[in-house]
Amino acid sequence: MNPDTFHKGRGAQQNPDNKFLEHRYETRDDFLEYMQAEGEDLGPGKTQYLPIFPKTIVNKVTSPDVGMNWSLNPYQGCEHGCIYCYARNSHEYWGYSAGLDFETRILVKENAPKLLEEKLRSKNWKAETIVLSGNTDCYQPAEEKFRLTRACLEIFLKYRHPVGIITKNSRILQDLDLLKELAAHNLVGVNISVTSLSEKTRRILEPRTATIARRLQAIQELSANNIPVNAMLAPIIPGINSHEVLPMAKAVADHGARSFSFTVVRLNGAIGQIFSEWIRKAMPDRADKVLHQIAECHGGSLNDSRFGIRNKGDGILATQIHDMVKLAKRQYFRDRVFPPLDNSLHQQYKKGQLSLF
């Protein structure tokens, strides 16, 4: 495998060392030469789905600036391969790399629906929105095979419990029947990620995601069925999509989104190394400029851990992005409201049906 080879269809171009593991893996030059002589490739290979059976499935979110208190992730790792994804770092906790492993070793929580039902039936649980998914996309390609997200939505509907959804995949429309029923009780809100209006940019940033046209179509179809949609224009990456804030906001508004949110990219943990190598291969002509501008938004570093600032950035470039966001909200979202979900119904359905007593 030539180190300069660009792995098409994948985001990360390497497997950086896992900081939690004692041993490090090194690919020696003599081994690479042997592989080349034998006509074999040491590329990323096919995606593997690995079943796991956790003891709990609903996670408390303690970070004060992510906009949710509870999350549920049916899958760990994500085949979408978004190069900037903050969730990459979590794959290290499972003994894998945040790089190619994150995209090719997908952990499947096959008992997720059962664990969710147990949680919602618990006497100590009080209804509060649970978000699918706060970490990895619940409608990534694995959902086509395992249907865990659909099974969880059926549980939320059965127990009349509010659920939020974050995705960048139009596969969500396959569950339109359940989403319409949940929306009829004001129990669901959907967040669709739109990172660019350029297919060229989308393909290299997010290689295995739905096209932009299909995402906008999903926003339109969900909205037409009275399912509230918030568009996530995230992350905004200086020098790559920062010039698209206004056009993206107009596009999602034209397709029916009730609101939009944004973040400024930050490259925490292993993502700094992964992103830096990727951009030097994918966009060599502007790599240094983009990396310097990202650092400008975070006090000179690619990462920023300060709550309340880390996702929005500061400095001149970040201020310009904020100003464009304010203008977009005034122009395209002046009278639009994303409704709060209903927490009051669940208590009557603790046993899976309406209680009469």
Automatic annotation (TrEMBL):
Q: Does the keyword Nucleus apply?
A: no
Which residue numbers delimit the Radical SAM core domain?
64-301
Please name the GO terms that the record assigns under molecular function.
iron-sulfur cluster binding; lyase activity; metal ion binding
Q: Tell me which UniProt keywords the record has, alphabetically.
A: Iron, Iron-sulfur, Lyase, Metal-binding
Q: Does the keyword tRNA-binding apply?
A: no
- State one Pfam family annotation: Radical_SAM
State the Gene3D superfamilies in the record.
3.80.30.30
Q: Would you tell me the protein name for this molecule?
A: DNA repair photolyase
Species of origin reads Zeaxanthinibacter enoshimensis
* Highest classification ranks of the organism: Bacteria, Pseudomonadati, Bacteroidota, Flavobacteriia, Flavobacteriales
